[in-house]
Amino acid sequence: MQFMLLFSRQGKLRLQKWYVAHPDKLKKKITRELITTILARKPKMCSFLEWRDLKIVYKRYASLYFCCAIEQEDNELLTLEVIHRYVELLDKYFGSVCELDIIFNFEKAYFILDELLLGGEIQETSKKNVLKAIAAQDLLQEVSHGNIEI
Amino acid sequence: MPAVRGDGMRGLAVFISDIRNCKSKEAEIKRINKELANIRSKFKGDKTLDGYQKKKYVCKLLFIFLLGHDIDFGHMEAVNLLSSNKYSEKQIGYLFISVLVNTNSELIKLIIQSIKNDLVSRNSIHVNLALQCIANIGSREMAEAFGNDIPKLLVSGDTMDVVKQSAALCLLRLFRTSQEIIPGGEWTSRIIHLLNDQHMGVVTAATSLIDALVKKNPEEYKGCVSLAVSRLSRIVTASYTDLQDYTYYFVPAPWLSVKLLRLLQNYTPPAEDPGVRGRLNECLETILNKAQEPPKSKKVQHSNAKNAVLFEAISLIIHNDSEANLLVRACNQLGQFLSNRETNLRYLALESMCHLATSEFSHEAVKKHQEVVILSMKMEKDVSVRQQAVDLLYAMCDKSNAEEIVQEMLNYLETADYSIREEMVLKVAILAEKYATDYTWYVDVILNLIRIAGDYVSEEVWYRVIQIVINRDEVQGYAAKTVFEALQAPACHENMVKVGGYILGEFGNLIAGDQRSSPGVQFQLLHSKYHLCSPMTRALLLSTYIKFINLFPEIRTQVQEVFKQHSNLRSADVELQQRASEYLQLSIIASSDVLATVLEEMPAFPERESSILAVLKKKKPGRVPENDIKENKSPTPVTNHNNDVNNTSAGSADLLGLSTPPTSQPNSSNTGVLLDVLGDIYNKPTNNLSNTSSNNTWFVDPKKFVCKNNGVLFENDLIQIGVKSEFRQNLGRLGLFYGNKTSAPLQNFVPTLMWSDEQASKLSIQMKPVEPVLEAGAQIQQMINAECIDDYTDAPSIVINFVCNNIPQKITIKLPLTINKFFEPTEMNGESFFARWKNLGNTNQQRSQKIFKASTPMDLQVARTKIMGFGMQLLDGIDPNPDNFVCAGIIHMRTQQVGCLLRLEPNKNAQMYRLTVRSSKETVSIEICDLLAEQF
């Protein structure tokens, strides 16, 4: 996978994760282009599209679009399920996740994603194991901070 | 404000709320600037800032960056956080760095030590944080700093599974930047054996790594095949409860299954071990069987995961292309998907079937689904699905169904989306030509194309119909009649006028017997369109008119009146003005014999095997110039009569002023469209003289002939040496033309070949002898035949010795017989190009790359012409950067064929080029790279 973007129905970018090095300018251009393209598509359309030499796989969950750019030989259907697994993880962690959770806890969204994917490849497919890893991180935080909850 | 999880930062949450409450973009920017100023002053002034505050501010900066603003400070504070002993601070530091730091940043040096410390931490969470950071940045520096530690981490028995997983993928990322990072030897087997690991997560991660390693060195990692098959076999026969949390919606380990199936696509089917092969086929059959079972869940996740594995298995079946039974079963399965209610499945099924259509085992099976595919093309709501259907129809077309498929595509074209019309037009044109048994059908199809989608009919398409009509007597009368009828439509497309004008100019006489299409009627009909046409079309029509004067002397005055019109004779368009005045003069001065000779019917275009592919060439700007010599004309204009050459004296061939379409070039590996042959003949080829040691000994290495086949190789006061060459497959034919420019004979005239026996075993050369005397003012021709047997470097030279006025002369010329001449251009789409590109890039042996400064100012148009002349197919629209050139071609040799891909990336700012060549043979890659690099 080359990158993953999360954006809202209004076209606001909520999360971006790049697995290839691009200059910021290019990243912005790609992001703008894809957001426009995908928002223009109708609900019943196919979740895949050819874009430059990549394949785009996207899916909408409530008000958020999840969009991945994968390479030609990558598996589209399974990429949809990578997205789904990520949504499940967010859901489990935040307890029925909504867009606001991701806005206010964007760093958590990143940490969870980093446990699921590394360098653009799936690292751990087991939901239990990912959640375990995140829980261990949270525990470490609480230990070092004497459990500050606000 | 929603609850903030874990270790919350109240200030951050307040700031995010503020931003969200901003009513306008301006207000948002104002709030952000205020915050940036605040953070900057804190970072600058407040020395007592504690870790928590630093973390909070770094997090705010991160948030501001994610909103799309540039962040130019805070990096040092983030670096400081890395060495914090509080995990939450460390984690935010790492996050900031992986999101904001580019691979080439100076900062990387500063963080390496912190990462090193975390990498040896006893806490696996810290180790993973470090690994994630390395993988996120993935730069060369990272590879150098950690290239030793990470492989050890991966295979060590002490490493925890979660760390192994991260280490495998981290290593993969570094391997992509620096291929040398993976140690060979005993490591190979240890890495391969990760496929047997107990922990499914480790196997999943390791399989990705192994896949990349295999691509680079398939031979060394061959052992992975049997392990992968065993692992796959265990998964597909497992019940979904066996694998616990690695079962996804009742599908056992879909990610690992897909990766293993992917890995196996790097190899040909395991032939030497029938046991492994049998087991693999069993796995594939099981997967196909499972597809027929009722679903275990109604959830789309279940069907997606299950079908993801199925599609990957089908990819492997297609890749192996050896088991007819499996191929046909795969085809039937995909056939079922064609009418599935999931758009995604229909899309993928069409795509996958395209590949099946190219296998001899399953081509027939694919054809059974023709009707459904035609329906998909017409009825699908999503244009990307319709596009897939068009592609599949194109792929499944053969002699038996061509008429029907072409007709359906034509029907659909009337309502097709604009975005796919041009490509459809090309596809229809290609199919019609490829499978035409009756050329009247072909003519009808192309004229229909122009009628239905005239705007999308590119020049190549209408050039091609003209070539075919000219080359085939049996269809000429029909074509004339048909275009005449088509032109009678009240609104007809300009492309129709062009084709009509050209064809009537050549063959109007074949229908002139009929009163309804008498000469006068034909002329009036064409001329009624004249004023609506562009200058280029008008120019063509003027040529048609002069041809009419020859065909139909009875309308001569009528035609002359048109030439005389002010709008033509004094046209602001110089081309029209010139044609009108010259044609007028020609019609007045020339006798009917001369007219008949000058305006003779076009000679047949040389047939060219791969013409069909050349048609696919995208439109090329800058093609038109009038001074292109056509084939059949040797470069005779040796000396001094260059100034009076114009369109008419160039002979009948160029009379209609059609630029030569790529398809009409005489040889398949040719210089492409517009060779500026005349231009070169008339310009003194001074730049050819690379080294002149004295005034009667010359060494010439005309480098520009790497990219062209015809022109003047050498010229001085005594002699002009021209060349004309053609190549087909692995054979080449050169005509050398020696012109004596003096008023004395050249004596003892002997050209000798310089090409060792050893070299000749790779490129064999036969040279016909020539007369030893070249008379004053005369020109002689010497034929040279070449056959490419094996790949070679350099090119043969000839030494020409002669005596002129008692002074011995010696000229050494390198012949334009470099290996690129044996290219056959290969058309391919982006997908297959990049697939091959990746495949060929696996080993250094296949690649050659040069980065070099432009020797002349960069001009992409010039570069384009050169590349097209180089002999490969220039593939437009494939590279995401429109300035880059990518090409594909096959070099034909007697012993083998070598596929070759090329990418040239100009960097205008730096005035540098990067040229990469990939082929299945190292020596070829290097030579092609060297040859082309010298051209820029």
UniProtKB/TrEMBL annotation, chain A:
Entry's Gene Ontology BP terms: intracellular protein transport
Record keyword Aminoacyl-tRNA synthetase present: no
SUPFAM superfamilies tied to this protein: SNARE-like
Alphabetical UniProt keywords: Coated pit, Cytoplasmic vesicle, Golgi apparatus, Membrane, Protein transport, Transport
Residue stretches spanning the membrane: none
Domain called AP complex mu/sigma subunit: residue spans: 1-139
InterPro entries noted in UniProt: AP1_sigma, AP_complex_ssu, AP_mu_sigma_su, Clathrin_sm-chain_CS, Longin-like_dom_sf
Subcellular location, record wording: Cytoplasmic vesicle membrane; Golgi apparatus; Membrane, Clathrin-coated pit
Record's bilayer topology term: Peripheral membrane protein
Domain of life: Eukaryota
GO molecular function: clathrin adaptor activity
Listed name of the protein: AP complex subunit sigma
PROSITE patterns: CLAT_ADAPTOR_S
Assembly and oligomerization: Adaptor protein complex 1 (AP-1) is a heterotetramer composed of two large adaptins (gamma-type subunit AP1G1 and beta-type subunit AP1B1), a medium adaptin (mu-type subunit AP1M1 or AP1M2) and a small adaptin (sigma-type subunit AP1S1 or AP1S2 or AP1S3).
Family: Belongs to the adaptor complexes small subunit family.
Entry keyword annotation includes Membrane: yes
GO cellular-component term (any): clathrin-coated pit
TrEMBL record, chain B:
Stretches with biased composition (Basic and acidic residues): 623-633
Domain of life: Eukaryota
Compositional bias (Low complexity): 659-668
Gene3D superfamilies (UniProt xref): 2.60.40.1230, Leucine-rich Repeat Variant (1.25.10.10), TATA-Binding Protein (3.30.310.10)
A biological-process GO annotation: intracellular protein transport
Compartments reported by the entry: Cell membrane; Membrane, Coated pit
Purpose: Adaptins are components of the adapter complexes which link clathrin to receptors in coated vesicles.
Record has rRNA-binding as a keyword: no
Keywords: Cell membrane, Coated pit, Endocytosis, Membrane, Protein transport, Transport
Subunit organization: Adaptor protein complex 2 (AP-2) is a heterotetramer composed of two large adaptins (alpha-type and beta-type subunits), a medium adaptin (mu-type subunit) and a small adaptin (sigma-type subunit). Adaptor protein complex 2 (AP-2) is a heterotetramer composed of two large adaptins (alpha-type and beta-type subunits), a medium adaptin (mu-type subunit AP50) and a small adaptin (sigma-type subunit AP17).
Record membrane topology: Peripheral membrane protein
Protein name: AP-2 complex subunit alpha
One GO cellular component, as annotated: AP-2 adaptor complex
Main location: membrane
Record flagged with keyword Cell membrane: yes
InterPro entries tied to this protein: Adaptor_Complx_Large_Subunit (IPR050840), AP2_complex_asu (IPR017104), ARM-like (IPR011989), ARM-type_fold (IPR016024), Clathrin/coatomer_adapt-like_N (IPR002553), Clathrin_a-adaptin_app_sub_C (IPR003164), Clathrin_a/b/g-adaptin_app_Ig (IPR008152), Clathrin_app_Ig-like_sf (IPR013041)
Residues that coordinate or bind a 1,2-diacyl-sn-glycero-3-phospho-(1D-myo-inositol-3,4,5-trisphosphate): R10, G11, K42, Y52, K56, Y57, V58, C59, K60
Pfam families the UniProt entry points to: Adaptin_N (PF01602), Alpha_adaptin_C (PF02296), Alpha_adaptinC2 (PF02883)
Domain Clathrin adaptor alpha/beta/gamma-adaptin appendage Ig-like subdomain per the UniProt entry, residue ranges: 703-816
Single annotated GO MF: clathrin adaptor activity
Chain intervals with Polar residues compositional bias: 634-651
Residues covered by region (Disordered): 623-668
